[in-house]
Amino acid sequence: MEKRLVPTPRSLADVDIRSREIIGRGWGMLERMVFRHRRFDGTWSDEVTRDIYTIGEVAMVLPYDSTLDAVLLIEQFRACGLVWDRATWLFEAVAGIVDAGETPPDVVIREAREEADCEIGTPVHMATVWSSPGGYGERTHLYAASANLSGTGGIHGLAHEHEDIRAVVVPLAEAYAATQDGRIADAKTTLMIQWLMMNKSRIA
């Protein structure tokens, strides 16, 4: 059978950036880029303008207790729903921004402590994904890690980062069911739970 999922060889030589300017800066950065790119037939595209919003590079972890067959999730308010006139408190995996000098595994170990008072084992890499590639520059590294989740839970977070985080431990089967019935609406967390359902034997 023909292999079709082979990435087309491409590099920055196949992108002609005409202009790049910062049009907004706050917690993140909004850039307007005008560019052309190489088309699949070898010709150049027309000029395209795109606004790209980037907060940073992110790492996420799903702590898993094989004895309990349970995972740790956190719940917190997210501003995304305000765009749609909705109040969005979302269940998600533990996450944090990768600061200068840190590696993604460093981040998930630190964030598990800060967001859930949870010590995790060596992070196992699931995937590195683009959160929303049409207009969001965030690149996210996804991990699972072993943890003893007995007695874990409660309210956590750093006050100076305006964090108000509720940590909950739930059976993996329930977490998976929540990806099906809408209780879990974060795409990355959904992906991580589905990965763990198929690969939990890899998390010692």
List the helices and strands and how they pair.
Layout: E1 15-25, E2 29-37, E3 48-54, E4 57-65, E5 70-78, E6 88-92, E7 94-97, H1 104-116, E8 124-130, E9 139-146, E10 154-156, E11 165-171, H2 172-181, H3 187-199
Parallel strand pairs: 4-9
Antiparallel strand pairs: 1-2, 2-3, 4-5, 4-7, 5-6, 5-11, 8-9, 10-11
Helix pairs in contact: 2-3
In percent, how helical is the residue content? 10-25%
The H-level CATH homologous superfamily of the largest domain, spelled out, is Nucleoside Triphosphate Pyrophosphohydrolase
Radius of gyration from CA coordinates: 19 Å
Described by the principal axes of the CA atoms, the overall outline is globular
- The CATH class name of the largest domain reads Alpha Beta
The CATH architecture of the largest domain can be given as: Alpha-Beta Complex
Count of all domains? 2
Unreliable stretches (pLDDT < 50, length at least 5) are none
Can you summarize the main beta sheet?
8 strands, mixed
Count of individual beta strands: 11
Average pLDDT for all residues: 95
CATH topology of the largest domain: Nucleoside Triphosphate Pyrophosphohydrolase
Structural class, please? alpha+beta
CA(first)-CA(last) distance:
36 Å
Number of contiguous helices: 3
Strand content: 35-45%
Helix-strand pattern: EEEEEEEHEEEEHH
